[in-house]
UniProtKB/TrEMBL annotation:
One of its GO terms (molecular function) is 4-alpha-glucanotransferase activity. Residues 24-199 form the Glycogen debranching enzyme bacterial and archaeal type N-terminal domain. It comes from the Archaea. GO terms for biological process: glycogen catabolic process. Transmembrane segments: none annotated. Pfam families: GDE_C (PF06202), GDE_N (PF12439). This is Amylo-alpha-16-glucosidase.
Amino acid sequence: MIAFGPEVRDRRFARRKEFLLVCNGAWSSSSLAGNTRKYHGLLVAGGRVLLASLDEHLNGEPLTPAAYAGGTDERGLARLYGVCLDPDPVFSYAAGGASLRKRISFDGALTVRYDLAGPGEVRVVPLVADRGIHETRTAYDLTATPIPGGVRIGPLTLRSEEMAFTPAPCLYRDLLYEEDRERGYAHQEHLYAPGAFTAAGEDCTFTLTAEAAGVPRSAARPGRGDWLEQAADSFLCGDEILAGYHWFAEGWGRDTFVSLPGLLLSRGSYAEARRVFARYAGRLKGGLIPNRMPDDYASSDAPLWFLHALERYRACSRDDRFVASMRPHIEAILREYPESAVAHLDGGLIAVAPRSTWMDTPHTPRAGKPVEVNALWIAALKFAESLGIEGPVPAYTAENAFARFWNQDRGCFFDLLDPADPAVRPNQAIALALGLAPPEEGRRALGVIREELLTPFGLRTLSPRERGYAGRFAGDATYHNGTVWPWLLPFYIDALRIYAPGADPAVLLAPLFAHLADAGLGTVSECFDGDPPHRPRGCISQAWSVAGVLRGYRGPPSGGDAGAA
């Protein structure tokens, strides 16, 4: 359980804590201080914020904190005396001589349960947005249609058996989303209120439900066990792994196969892994895996991460039959990828197009031969050879050429060759995790990573000693120039197992476990500031961040038997 006491009355504290309940890609999410992002909403489905929030009152006193263009309304926070997640968020209020306990549950539909202790009247005004998650809205032409026990607004239906609905349509104007304002995005909107649900009583329970047309409910509710297990489940939607919440809620090829070993293989979810492999294999084109569906084939590393994840699948599941079914796709990648639109073979190594690696902003183009791409290339050649598949060059030829990456002057690896880039970056940790350095060089490189890149929450994307380092995240220019990424940490841990055995991964991962009670509650943020105190940034819940913690703690997936399809 994650629990907070009176400290939640501090708006700055409450703003930083966000809950996220997910079911098949739909979600219910907000901060403990109310909606601070346009992506927040109590019912978000199909890429649309349907029910934004609820304006709640107990005995005439407001319980819902909010921010407006003219200032903040913190009266609701003053009446909040505790919040816990188990995993449902439960809010405890006191007002007007009564106390109210509110539980938010989500299984594709929203259920809000109010347990009233003492005499009281509860009034709940639903606030409707009905817009895309990346938008804001100020004009409405919605029609609220009363139905037995509630109201229907477009695809949204709200009902209560215990509370009476009274139509009174109006607009709540100029709500302000503080996090979006700080990120430089549209951050003000109006919300549509169709009326109010009210009920009075003593020591009783009221329930309000909200459903969206066409959104199925899940028969299985999340358990109350491990937070990381629940977070891992939240990213799996059919045969896709969604990249992150809130704004990356779609499948990305690179992120999918970086994440798959931690999210699925480390947990024995082999049938789910097979479905993901099959989805992307069926869309292979010109040796490339789509980075975004349906037709973004601009990633030079996604095919190599696909093969890396498939090799890990084989190692842990021992499912040679499925891997054999992937053989035509493995052969196609090895045949076509080295002469594709984004990659070509040169001297046994792979050179790539600009902005085609995971560091894909204009500020880190990395055209040339990136260290991690070539480490994955060598691993792909070795995997193919283990299956009796001949690649365009032998693995030993590529591995011999890889020796050029060693930078004797810096005691670590070049991030890029042709042209050579000596900047100290974390991509070399992937090469070390794959055992591509001689023992002494591996130990030296680990020392540089430890001294210049390692933080409590992952690895910096650029050493603070380098020109261009940015210690505070501020958009694309800093995204890969100092910002810390948790997904890189398990590769550092794997490298320690090879070159400095005896290190305890639990010590390195402890800050990320503590982070589960910060930012996105029960999950792991996309990235962090490079400088202390390493404020969480980006998405509040990122697939490869969660996967990294799972994999770092449990080690590289290996052993076990393939599950049934």
